[in-house]
C-alpha cells in the first residue's frame, strides 16, 4: 500500500510527536489521522507550519517533563496495599488491574495517574508483593510496590 507523508498536528502514540513529518499508510492517514484533525498531508505550504508546531511541542515537552518528574518523585518506592477475597485454597476472586491501581494511587496520594502509565502485562491474580513500573510522559519512570493481601474470613 502507498505511503503518505503527513505533518502531525498532535502527538500520536507509536507514530510521532506534534510537528514531526511522518510516513504512514494512506488508509490510516485518510481514514483516521486527517479526519480526526491529528495530521495534515505534507505539502510545501503545510511544511512551513512545521517549525511553529515543533516550537509549541518543545514548550509542551518541558511542561510535561516537569509534571512527570513531580509525579515520579511523589510515587517512586511507595507501597500500595490491596485486600482481596480469596477462596479456601488461597486463590483470588477477581484480579487487580491497572484501573484498580490508578484508583488506589489517587485515593491514597491525590496523584492522578493515567492507566496507560502503569506497565502491567496482565492483571494481578495472586497474593504477594509486586514491583510495578510507571512510565510517564517524556521518558520519566518510577517504580511502586503493590502488596496484595488476602482478606481474613474470620475477621
Any overview of this molecule?
This protein is an alpha+beta fold and 155 residues long. The protein folds into 2 domains: 3-48, Ribosomal protein L9, N-terminal domain (Ribosomal Protein L9, domain 1, 3-Layer(aba) Sandwich); 71-150, Ribosomal Protein L9, domain 2. 32% of the residues lie in helices and 26% in strands. It has a 4-stranded mixed sheet. Strands 2-1-3 form a 3-stranded antiparallel sheet. β5 (118-119) and β6 form a beta hairpin. The relative contact order is 0.15. The mean pLDDT is 90.
Short structural description:
The chain is of the alpha+beta class and 155 residues long. It has helices at residues 26-33, 44-47, 50-75, 98-109, and strands at 3-8, 21-25, 39-41, 79-84, 118-119, 128-135, 141-150. The N and C termini lie far apart (63 Å).
Q: Which strand order spans the largest sheet, edge to edge or round the barrel?
A: 4-7-6-5
Largest sheet: 4 strands, mixed
Beta-strand portion reads 25-35%
* Overall number of structural domains: 2
Question: Low-confidence parts, pLDDT < 50 over ≥5 residues?
Answer: none
CATH architect. name of the largest domain: Roll
* CATH top level class name of the largest domain: Alpha Beta
Question: What structural category do the secondary elements indicate?
Answer: alpha+beta
What is the rounded Rg?
A: 21 Å
- Strand-and-helix sequence, N→C? EEHEHHEHEEE
Distance between the termini: 63 Å
Mean pLDDT equals: 90
Number of helices: 4
**Relevant CATH superfamily of the largest domain:** Ribosomal protein L9, C-terminal domain
